[in-house]
Specification:
The chain has 2 domains: 9-123, Sandwich (Tumour Suppressor Smad4), CATH 2.60.200.20; 164-225. Helix content is 50%, strand content 23%. It has helices at 2-21, 121-163, 167-185, 191-208, 215-227; strands at 24-32, 39-41, 47-50, 57-58, 69-74, 77-82, 89-91, 94-96, 98-101, 106-109, 112-120. A 6-stranded antiparallel β-sheet has the order 2-1-11-10-7-8. A 5-stranded mixed β-sheet has the order 4-3-5-6-9. The longest helix has 43 residues, at 121-163.
Length: 228
């Protein structure tokens, strides 16, 4: 019996060894919960699952402990050990402190469900390529958006600067408008004189901005129409 067990262990170890050198590799795939779709190969040595950034499989969920569980490989067999986590570790629905895991098993870490399987190594390369392409597309989209916004802002400012009178002219417009408003408010005290002075200043505003590009010119036109 002992000889049979040793033969079985040797066969498993040889098989895993062959797989690691070929196109297949043991892997963890998040099938539900935070990080759904993530697929990480399980290498030799200690493999940590947890919330820390340096974990082999990082699960960004506050319910997951910083170092929640670890997976060890020995003689082609994989063992998972709970590292004293608050919410524990389950294998196929059963809570465990330490247990052997096999391909096809489902690991539950604080509500996140993870599958332990064999995956083609090409899938990892393809996923990395897709992730890089996705990040590149996002970065490119952001750059395009920023570029379009910058161009629109530049064009708006150019149009505003082209449409508005120059600084000296604008100052004259504002000065005449203020004087016109002053006399407009004084019309009741001396209707003839103040009305005439108001019209002179408002007409000066219109002459300085005949196309009505400023609000002063548009307002002056309305006042003139009301007084005439």
């Amino acid at each position: 019996m002992a000889e049979e067990n040793n033969s079985e262990e040797a066969l498993i170890e040889e098989t895993i060894g062959d797989l690691s050198e070929a196109e297949w590799a043991p892997a963890l795939t998040v099938i539900s919960g935070r990080g759904e779709g993530s697929c990480i190969p399980v290498g030799d040595g200690e493999f940590i699952i947890g919330r820390l950034k340096d974990c082999g499989l990082r699960v960004d969920d506050n319910s997951v402990s910083r170092r929640h569980a670890k997976i060890d490989q020995r003689h082609g067999r994989f063992t998972i050990t709970d590292l004293g986590s608050k919410w524990g570790t389950k294998i196929n629905g059963q809570a465990v402190d330490r247990a052997e895991i096999k391909f096809g098993d489902k690991i539950e870490i604080a509500g996140t469900l993870i599958s332990f399987d064999l995956k083609r190594r090409a899938e990892f390369c393809l996923k990395k390529g897709r992730d890089k392409l996705k990040m590149f597309i996002i970065a490119l989209a952001v750059l395009v958006f920023v570029g379009i916004a910058a161009i629109a802002y530049f064009r708006y400012n150019v149009q505003q600067n082209m449409s508005m009178p120059g600084g000296d002219v604008l100052a004259q417009i504002m000065s005449n408008y203020d004087s016109g408003i002053y006399y407009y408010n004084k019309i009741d005290s001396d209707p003839v004189k103040n009305k005439q002075l108001c019209l002179e200043h408002m007409n000066a505003v219109v002459d300085l901005d005949p196309t009505g590009k400023t609000r002063f010119s548009r307002s002056a036109r309305r006042i003139i129409e009301g007084l005439e």
